[in-house]
Design a protein that fits this description.
About 25% of the residues lie in helices and about 20% in strands. The protein has ten helices and 17 strands. β6 (about 100) and β7 form a beta hairpin. α8 (about 325-340) crosses α10 (about 365-375). The chain starts with about 30 loop residues before the first strand and ends in a 24-residue tail after the last helix.
Length: about 400
């Protein structure tokens, strides 16, 4: 998945007047929504299609839900679907408190909205989402503890989990560091109905011989220090799931043996003389571009094809911005509970909330956990946090 999807495009035809299009043209990609994320008490979701929409406290188009907030004008912002750019575009309607897209003040022109774009109307913050799974019914069997949130990419992920979990084929989870890949792998195992254990190993922490021994086991005397037989993780996961984290770091010399174990359902312990049958489902994960590594010869193409029979793309935190403030509250509650203290929920000013949304969060949930720790360690704050009270590193690399 792309690392940065939220940079706002340049103004679209700033001198153009009137509608972006004269006749509505139904496009499959036009299904989108704006999700209100600030203030927290503002419960608003605005569904969008190819028809123009006016946002405001009392929009005059007669169909768009109102945004009831004192800083929002009656008719504040106009959105239209532009089939030429394949996205929605918007412009301010000379509102009293102005509009911003991705932190950039709107002039008279149109601005492109890409998935994840933050739109500011007065002090109200909304996140633009687009995707085919907006209207898909959430699979109830997938735990929201494993994949929490309501952002479109997470809803899509839960759909992927529900489809992939019951199958015995290998699954490959692609996601940046800190996005929670092992938690998703564990959920795949839970929903699979397999009676064996969930066994995890990080392929980046062992050398070639040691990881071969860890996976397939070894017999006594197979190498110096092998004083007893060891069954290995494949046999430990018999009837269950073996999670191979950081599969992109596996030595290429070992990859044919892993491929054979997956295809033939057989392993041979290091130093052993015969093959052993195993019943193990493989779930692998990586933060690498495994397809590119396979094309360049750094990873076996046949193994990649076998592992990716199910490929689940775990979105980065900056790709699920409509859930960011929810995550702050969730991690803050966990922080307080783990220390046996009671804290009031973190409150933000509008500008501080916008800064949180626009931060790139390159460390994903680990970075957000650090942020919550920095804020919570200060103790209870009677007033909402201002932008200047946030940790300085929050603003590093933020858009625009």
């Amino acid at each position: 998945m792309p690392g940065r999807r939220h940079a706002v495009e340049d103004t679209v035809d700033s001198t153009r007047q009137g509608s972006v299009q004269t006749e509505p043209v139904r496009e499959p990609g036009a299904a989108a929504r704006l999700v209100g994320v600030y203030p927290p008490e503002l419960q608003v979701t605005i569904d969008l299609d190819e028809h123009p929409a006016v946002l405001g406290r009392a929009p005059d188009d007669g169909t768009t839900p109102p945004i009831v907030h004192k800083t929002v004008s009656r008719s504040h912002f106009r959105l239209e679907w532009d089939p030429r750019s394949g996205c929605h575009v918007g412009r301010d309607l000379e509102s009293r408190n102005g509009s911003e897209v991705e932190g950039r003040t709107m002039g008279a022109g149109w601005r492109i909205l890409t998935p994840g774009t933050v739109v500011r109307l007065g002090d109200v913050l909304l996140v633009y989402e687009r995707g085919r799974t907006l209207d898909v019914v959430d699979p109830p069997q997938v735990s929201r503890e494993a994949a929490p949130g309501d952002a479109q990419p997470i809803r899509h992920l839960r759909t992927q989990i529900a489809r992939a979990a019951p199958d015995i084929s290998p699954a490959l989870i692609i996601g940046e560091t800190g996005t929670g890949k092992e938690r998703i792998a564990s959920e795949l195992h839970r929903l699979s109905g397999r009676t064996g254990d969930f066994v995890a190993v990080n392929c980046a922490t062992f050398g070639e011989q040691l990881i071969e021994s860890q996976l397939f086991g070894h017999v006594k005397g197979a190498f110096t220090g092998a004083t007893t037989d060891q069954p290995g993780l494949f046999r430990a996961a018999q009837g269950g799931t073996l999670f191979l984290d950081e599969i992109g770091e596996m030595p290429i010399e070992l990859q044919p043996k892993l491929l054979r174990a997956i295809q033939e359902r057989e392993i041979r312990p290091l130093g052993g003389a015969k093959n052993l049958t195993v019943d193990v489902r493989i779930v692998a994960a990586t933060h690498r571009d495994l397809a590119r590594k396979a094309r360049s010869g750094e990873f076996r193409q046949d193994l990649y094809a076998r592992l990716a029979l199910w490929q689940l793309d775990l979105p980065a935190l900056r790709e699920r911005r409509s859930d960011l403030l929810f995550w702050v509250g969730r991690l803050h509650s966990i922080w307080a509970k783990s220390r046996g203290v009671e804290l009031e929920p973190i409150r933000f000013s509008s500008r501080a909330a916008q800064a949180v949304l626009l931060s790139p969060w390159l460390e994903n949930l680990r970075g957000l956990d650090r942020f919550v720790h920095d804020v919570a360690a200060v103790g209870s704050v009677s007033e909402p946090l201002t932008r200047d009270q946030l940790p300085a590193w929050i603003h590093e690399g933020a858009t625009p």
